[in-house]
Design goal:
The complex is a heterodimer. Helices cover 41% and strands 15% of the residues of chain A. Chain A has 13 helices and five strands. Chain A is globular and about 80 Å long. Chain B is an alpha+beta fold. Chain B has a three-stranded antiparallel beta sheet with strand order 1-2-3. In chain B, strand 2 and strand 3 form a beta hairpin. In chain B, helix 2 packs across helix 3 and helix 3 crosses helix 4. The chains are: A alpha+beta, B alpha+beta. Chains A and B meet through strand 1, strand 2, helix 8, strand 3 and strand 4 of A and helix 1, strand 1, strand 2, strand 3 and helix 3 of B. Strand 1 of chain A pairs parallel with strand 1 of chain B, so a sheet runs across the interface.
């Protein structure tokens, strides 16, 4: 058997794209009422899907994330890939100074550590306490009923006398001497994972940045291994916040920080098992931190647990996969991992022929008398 | 209008880009617009301070457009303006830079810019009010929970 060079796939590839487009628009066949998905509808009614894509794509551009979802027909990995491809064509113009989340415009704030936290607990939009039952009435929701829901809620909602900012639970614990001090690396330049390769060991800023744009399911799976027993973080959520963070940049003329826009983020801080201070000080709680673009609480909690696990692994050596920075950070990126998995679909004719040849030779030899 | 210059972008961007572009076009009818830096659309990198150890790290990127301009009137007066805005729209950045300069220097048309900032600020205030309402409507009243007869859920 000889190897054959192949050509002529161009038509098939173009055909595959056309078939995919046919399926995207098939609803319109003989259906005069069919309409294409509006970007605004995706932005608002599939908001958690958009949140996943902005986070995993690493660019807070909800409108293009919605477009990516539309063109990929809801495949989050493909959508994140398209968003990253777009970002790779854009020049980097600026970076913000280090922003903190104390001035976030919150829509949700809870603590599992304390019942009474300064400013109070506010559930915001969450399915946490809802029954996971199908709402069959949405199967045939009328446009009028749909429009009335938000209007009615706004009419009935209370006038809120709330502060613009809320103190952080961790700050109170730190003031009591129950937490480790803030990092000595404060003020250092952060590691840019989009410009520098991960060569281990990597600083914590590289770990946080990698996890912030990780694929949600991958991050959850490794964090879950730690929760179930392949690790011992045992976290308590000190605070989980969801809200809009003002993006501040210097004014080109005055240099004063100006709000250029805002990003929706989820942030989680966990307190874990306390440990002795090696310098002889009092024992303090260990802590972990997670945050990501969009409203994605599972991701932020998973990241916080893994941040704590990785700190332990960096300090004492990894006792399980979730404490190993190389294992965690090289396996949580959705675009990387889907790319590797997908590449197995591509032609491997030559390498497989080689495998076939070796197997046949081995079989032939094993059948021969020794 | 009481808003400081640092808050103008947030207020103005409550309006559609088409409105701001048209306004900038109008107020520069008698001006010479010189670009100090070209209108650009690209990305910004968001640096966040982590809440646990206060270390800076990069959360991700966002679309960013920027522009700096200088306006000159026929009487010789000049004004500098600039804008960095979270948008993938270089033309919008140019318009915002013009509006920034016009209002800062009280150039002709500044009253219209000021009115747009005021109305934009009202829209932003309404947005903020709706967000606060989400919090207020879902505030947990633990005191009420403690007084409830069937209070057996705490752990």
């Amino acid at each position: 058997m000889s190897y054959v060079a192949i050509k002529g796939g161009g038509q098939a590839i173009a055909g595959a794209a056309a078939v995919s487009e046919y399926l995207r628009t098939e609803e319109g066949l003989g259906n005069t009422g069919a309409e294409p998905l509006a970007i605004d509808a995706i932005l608002h009614q599939l908001r958690h899907l958009v949140d996943r894509v902005v986070s995993e794509g690493g660019v807070y551009y909800p409108r293009f994330a919605a477009l990516a979802i539309k063109q990929s027909m809801g495949d989050t990995l493909e959508a994140a890939f398209a968003l990253r491809a777009w970002r790779s064509t854009r020049p980097r113009l600026s970076e913000t100074p280090p922003l903190d989340t104390s001035r976030m415009r919150l829509i949700r704030r809870i603590s599992a550590a304390f019942k009474d936290i300064p400013g109070g607990q506010m559930l915001g939009p969450t399915p946490d306490y809802a029954l996971r039952l199908l709402r069959l009435e949405l199967m045939d929701e009328s446009p009028d009923a749909f429009r009335a829901v938000a209007r009615n809620w706004l009419e009935k909602c209370p006038e809120a006398e709330l502060p613009d900012t809320f103190p952080k639970v961790l700050d109170a614990l730190r003031a009591e001497g129950l937490l480790p001090p803030v990092s000595a690396t404060r003020g250092q330049t952060a590691f840019d994972i989009t410009r520098e390769p991960l060569v281990f060991p990597v600083p914590r800023s590289a770990q946080l940045a990698t996890m912030a744009r990780a694929e949600t399911g991958s991050l959850l799976a490794i964090a879950y291994s730690n929760m179930r027993g392949y690790g011992d973080v045992h976290p308590t959520v000190a605070e989980l916040r969801v809200g809009y963070l003002p993006v501040m940049l210097p004014h080109p003329v005055t240099g004063e920080l100006v709000e250029a826009g805002e990003v929706l983020i989820t942030e989680c801080e966990v307190v874990a098992m306390y440990e002795a201070d090696e310098a002889g000080g009092k024992p303090v709680f260990t802590i972990g931190y997670g945050a990501c673009f969009g409203h994605n609480e599972v991701k932020a909690i998973s990241m916080a647990i893994l941040d704590r696990a990785l700190q332990k692994g960096m300090k004492d050596g990894a006792n399980n996969p979730s404490e190993d920075p190389e294992f965690v950070l090289l396996h949580v990126d959705g675009v990387d991992s889907m790319g590797f998995a997908s590449h197995y679909k591509m032609p491997h004719y030559v390498t497989f022929q080689s495998d076939l040849d070796r197997l046949r030779t081995t079989q032939q030899k094993s059948g021969e008398p020794a | 209008m009481n808003l400081e210059r640092k808050d103008w972008i947030r207020a103005l961007t409550a309006h559609p880009a088409t409105v701001l572009n048209a306004l900038a076009e109008d107020v520069t009818a008698g001006c010479d617009v010189k670009l100090k830096s070209l209108p650009q659309a690209g990305l910004g990198l968001l640096t966040l301070t982590d809440g646990a150890f206060h270390e800076p790290y990069y959360l991700g990127e966002f679309p960013l457009s920027s522009c700096s301009i200088e306006l000159s009137l026929s009487d010789g007066r000049q004004a500098a303006g600039g804008a960095q805005v979270m948008a993938d729209d270089a033309e919008l950045a140019r318009s915002l830079a013009i509006l920034d300069a016009v209002l800062a220097a009280r150039f002709p048309g500044w009253e219209r810019v000021s009115a747009h900032i005021e109305s934009g600020a009202k829209q932003r205030a309404e947005e903020d009010r709706r967000r606060r309402a989400m919090l207020a409507a879902t505030r947990v009243d633990f005191a009420m929970l403690n007084n409830a007869e069937d209070d057996d859920d705490e752990c």
